[in-house]
Amino acid sequence: MEDEGRESRRRDRSLPASAIGRGARLASLPVGFAGRTALGVGRRIGGAPADAVMTEVQRRTAEQIFSVLGQLKGGAMKFGQAMSIFEAALPDEIAGPYRETLTKLQDAAPPMPPAVVHRVLARELGDDWRDLLVELEDTPAAAASIGQVHRGRWHDGREVAVKIQYPGAAKALQSDLRQLARLSRLFGVLAPGLDVKPLIAELQERVAEELDYELEAASQRVFHAAYVDHPVVSVPAVVHASSQTLVTEWMDSRASLAEIIRSGTTQERDHYGEHYVRFLLEGPEHVGLMHADPHPGNFRVLEDGRMGVVDFGAVARLPDGLPPAIGPLLRIAIDGDAEAVSAGLRAEGFLRPGTSIEPEVLAAYLGPFFEPAVAGEFTFTREWLRRQMQRLSSPGVEGMATSLRINLPPEYLLIHRVWMGGIGVLSQLEATAPFKAILQDTLPGFAE
């Protein structure tokens, strides 16, 4: 009996932290923020400049946020990964000290103990799971928000990657996202121009899909078939799938895109930056799907120079391709036809009935976003992205006053997430890419 009790306690410790414990950690964020704000008020009374006080509050807020998110799996980890894409938009004095933490949020999380891994495999593959998976490394090769990956060997001799969902991941994911939704104002302190509410809402809506590994396997099979002989992109084949276990062919890589961001050469940044954005944008036309989790840990640098792509839990299903209005709207915006852009956005639902924005004001607001599509080549930089975020948070007509009057139609939510996430990663890479040519190749109706 004593041994059984010890085993039970060990199992409990192997699960994600309890809802009470997780809630307590997340709840510590606003408490800490209140204290930092009070400190800031005190410093202002003492005569410290407002911008210096704000920077200090932001820095301390960032430290606590990244620390708490880094300790949790589930929704907190997934949100942290999504936020890490926008690291380039944060002021360097805030992002700089925590860049390493942000990178870890993109590519890793604390692992499950082997005993838990074996129990999940027995439940998902059957008690004779070792007849199918004849070798398994107990130490995970990678770990993320809702599961971790082990290297192994399938019974037919193939080297495989075994993705195993954390027990209790669904409950943790839903609980964390509910809590984070209540804390959304806190994250606005870090980057006032970045509204995290739509991001959290979109993550909440897609919880069920990302937890279903059989659905993920179906999407990965489609991508694999489309890229099986591709000269630049590689997608591993699916070997076996169940609701909480996904087995795919192993893909050797020497680095992730996150590591290229950290220490890659200029040539590597440009090369993989171009193929990264091409892959994201061409999917809807090629396979009717868009990979919708653009954080750098999902993109691998292979030994032969190709780019490997993993994690198809989040996809936008676009059987007819991207909305046909996107290409023509972008083209007429670049051509400077403000009246046509305004009419087109209203027809697509970006301007609600009764909302009035002067075409010239709307053109001034949107203009800087089109910079990458104007020249033959464009270099994405952290500074360029910061300028756009600062502009969006400014009170003038080119900023907050206009953004509050623009609506994001539901059918564009995932597309917007991928588009903005992709720009965030390109800005982290500081990649130079022929963006105009890429759009001409991938957006119907954009080419002149």
In short:
With 448 residues, the protein is an alpha+beta fold. The chain has 21 helices and 14 strands. It folds into two domains: 2-105 and 172-207, no CATH class; 253-448, no CATH class.
Describe the structure.
- The protein has 448 residues and is of the alpha+beta class.
- It has 2 domains: 140 residues, no CATH class; 196 residues, no CATH class.
- The chain has 21 helices and 14 strands.
- Strands 1, 2, 3, 4, 6 and 7 form a 6-stranded antiparallel β-sheet that branches. It has a 4-stranded mixed β-sheet with strand order 5-11-10-8. Strands 9-12 form a two-stranded antiparallel ribbon.
- The longest helix is centred in the first third of the chain and has 27 residues.
- About 11% of the residues have low confidence.
SSE-based structural type: alpha+beta
Cα separation of the termini: 76 Å
Mean pLDDT: 77
Which residues sit in consecutive blocks of at least 5 with pLDDT less than 50? 4-20, 29-55, 189-193
Beta-strand residue fraction: 5-15%
Q: What is the total tally of β strands?
A: 14
Radius of gyration: 23 Å
Question: How many distinct helices?
Answer: 21
Q: How many domain units?
A: 2
Main beta-sheet strand count, sense and barrel state: 6 strands, antiparallel
Global morphology = globular
Helix content: 55-70%
